[in-house]
Amino acid sequence: MTESGADSRAAAVRAVAAVLGHGVMLEAALEAAAAAPSDRAFAQALAFGALRFGHRLRRVAVQLLPRPWDDQKPAVQALLLVGLYQLEYAGTAPHAAVSATVAAARMVGATGAAGLINACLRRYQREREALLAGADETQAGRWSHPDWFAEQLMRDWPDHWERILEANNAHPPLTLRARRGRISRDSLAAELAETGMVTHAVSFATDALDLEVPTDIRSLPAFVAGRCSVQDAAAQLAAPLLAAGPGMRVLDACAAPGGKTGHLLELVPGLSELVAVDIDAQRARRIRDNLARLGLTADVRIGDAANPQVIGEALYDRILLDAPCSGTGVIRRHPDIKWLRRPRELPGLAARQRDLLQALWRHLKPGGRLVYATCSVLRAENMAVVQGFLRETADAVDVTNSASLALTGLPPLPEPRGPGLVLLPGYAGTDGFYYACLERRAT
Ligand SMILES: C[S@@+](CC[C@H](N)C(=O)[O-])C[C@H]1O[C@@H](n2cnc3c(N)ncnc32)[C@H](O)[C@@H]1O
C-alpha cells in the first residue's frame, strides 16, 4: 500500500522532471506519467502549479540545498518544486504535503533523496518568511519567470512588463466559442445556466463566453455535440479580422489543430474553398477531428506552407498565417514555456515567420487580405517582422486599424508602437496575441 496521496504526487513529479530534464512539453509529460483516473486532476494541478511558480520556488530551494541546484537530478528538482508548491500555494495540509511528497520520492526512484526532501520541506515550514524574502530579492524569484524573459519584456514593454508577468502567473479562464449555425452565444449561455454554470459574454468577441468556474470540457454535452469549442477570446479575433465573404477562396496556412479553421467556416458557411495546411502530420489529423465534431470540412493538406507545390497555383482572397512562435503570450495556459523556451531560439523563429510571410504573399490575390498572427508578446516576432515585410513589399498595406475592422467593446490596450494590434496578458482578460491585417494593393 502506498502512502495516501503519494500516487498523484509521484505522477506530478515524473511530469515536472520530464519537462526540466528532457525538455518534454508538460501536457505530453502528464500523459506519459499515466496517473490513475482518480489522481489525474490533482497531479495536473500540482505539475502546472509547480512550473508556474517554479522560478520562485527554485530560489527558495537553493537556500535549502547543501549542493547547487544544477547538480541535482531532475527528479530531485521536481520533488522540491512539487513539495514547496503544495506548502506555499496549493493550500495542502502541511503534514500531508510533506509525507506524501517524501513517499513519492521512493516511487519515482529517488529513494536516496527522501531524507533530503523531508529535511528541506520541514525547514521551509520553520523558516518560510526568511526563505521567501531571500527568493524575492532576485528578479526571477520576485516574478517567477526566467531572467531573460523578464528583461526582454522590460525592453519591449517598459510601461507594461510587470502587469504582463503578473497576468502570466494567474489562472486562465476557460473560454468557449458558440458554434454559429448551431447555437447562438445567448442560447449556449442559457443551456449552461440550466446546469448551474455561470458564464460571461466577452464584449469584443461576438461568439466568446467565459465560464466563471472552469470545468472538464469533455463532460459538457454542448461540447461533445459540437455546439461549442474551447478557444481564448483573443484567438477568436482571427476569423473576424480576416473578414472573408461567401464565394471566397481562403487559405489557413498554419492550421493545426484547427481552432481558427473551424471559426472561419462557422462565420462564412458559403466559402468556395478553405484549404488548411500544416507541416505536422499528427497535428493535421486533429484539424479533421475537430472539424468533424463541428460538422465542418476543409481541404486539409500536410506540408510546408512556404512550398508552392503544397499551396498550388491559384490565388486566394484571404490568407491566415497563424505563425509558429515562442508562445510567450500563452504562458498562463502553458507554464512549461517558462522552462522550455530559450532566448537563442528567437532569431530563428523571427526568420521563419518572415519567410512564411514572404512566401504566402505570392499566393494572395490583388485586393485580397492576409492576416499575420502570433501568440507571442515579443516585438521581434510581431511588429519587427511586419515592419520589415512592409518595407520590402511595395504592394502591401497595413489596414489593421482601419475603421471597417474596428472591434467594438475592446478595452483600451497598450499602444503597439508599430503596425498591427497587440493584446497583452493582463489588459483585456485574454492571452497575449498579435494581429496584423495586410492588404495587397490592386495594381
Ligand atoms: C500557432 S499554431 C497554429 C494554431 C491554429 N491556427 C489554431 O488556431 O488551432 C502553428 C502551427 O504551425 C505549424 N507550422 C509550423 N511551421 C509550418 C510550416 N512551415 N508550414 C505549415 N505549418 C507550419 C505547426 O505545426 C503548428 O501547428
Low-confidence stretches: none
Oligomer: single chain
**Would you tell me the structural class of the helices and strands?**
alpha/beta
Radius of gyration: 23 Å
Can you identify the CATH class of the largest domain? Alpha Beta
Bound molecules: S-adenosylmethionine
Outline, from the CA principal axes? globular
Q: What portion of the residues fall into strands of 2 or more residues? A: 5-15%
CATH architecture of the largest domain: 3-Layer(aba) Sandwich
Question: Could you report the average pLDDT, rounded to the nearest whole number?
Answer: 96
Largest sheet, in brief, is: 8 strands, mixed
| Head-to-tail CA distance between termini | 76 Å
Secondary structure: number of strands: 12
Number of helices: 19
Q: What is the CATH H-level superfamily of the largest domain? A: Vaccinia Virus protein VP39
What's the SSE blueprint?
Blueprint: H1 6-22, H2 26-33, H3 37-52, H4 54-64, H5 74-88, H6 94-107, H7 114-136, H8 139-143, H9 147-156, H10 161-168, E1 174-178, H11 185-194, E2 199-201, E3 208-211, H12 221-224, E4 228-230, H13 238-242, E5 249-252, H14 259-267, E6 273-278, H15 281-293, E7 299-302, H16 308-311, E8 316-322, H17 337-340, H18 346-361, E9 364-374, H19 383-392, E10 396-398, E11 421-423, E12 433-440
This protein binds S-adenosylmethionine (SAM).
The site of S-adenosylmethionine has 18 residues, from α14 and β6.
